[in-house]
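Re: Re: ligand-bound prediction request (bumping)

Still looking for help on this. To restate: I need the protein modeled with adenosine-5'-diphosphate bound, output as structure tokens. Inputs repeated here so nobody has to scroll up.
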Amino acid sequence: MNKIIGEPGSSRTTYQHENPDWVIKKPNTTSHRHKNLQEWKTWQLAVEKGIEELLVPCVKCAPDGDWLIMERAELLEDKRERPPKLPWMHDAGWKNWGVHNGRKKLLDYASSEIYKRLKQL
Ligand SMILES: Nc1ncnc2c1ncn2[C@@H]1O[C@H](COP(=O)(O)OP(=O)(O)O)[C@@H](O)[C@H]1O
Ligand SMILES: [Mg+2]
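Reply:
Sorry for the wait, this slipped through. Here it is.
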């Protein structure tokens, strides 16, 4: 596998993809595959709702969630860089943010709570 980016999360580890503009998220165990599927679903919903500019785009996801390809963002270095909260964001600490195409965006949105809130927009 390629180089790990950032620190492994509680459910997934992120690796550099062969394409330098992409990363690949791998579940830490098979029981974490649903996190990739959740993030993919939330991305589709964000596009539907027209708020996709606030999320780092997902590119592709394995049908069983065994991998998810996302565009690469630069990690924030300091918690003071944290952007303002929006009402549908849930539990989005500064480590869940990155800079993508010059804009701050969420890079970890595998959350059923975010999905639920977006659905209500
Ligand atoms: N699109 C991305 N670009 C660059 N680094 C990322 C990206 N997505 C995640 N990471 C890094 O990988 C770490 C783990 O991924 P994350 O999606 O947060 O997994 P988990 O769901 O386990 O919290 C993140 O905290 C971040 O450092
Ligand atoms: Mg995380």
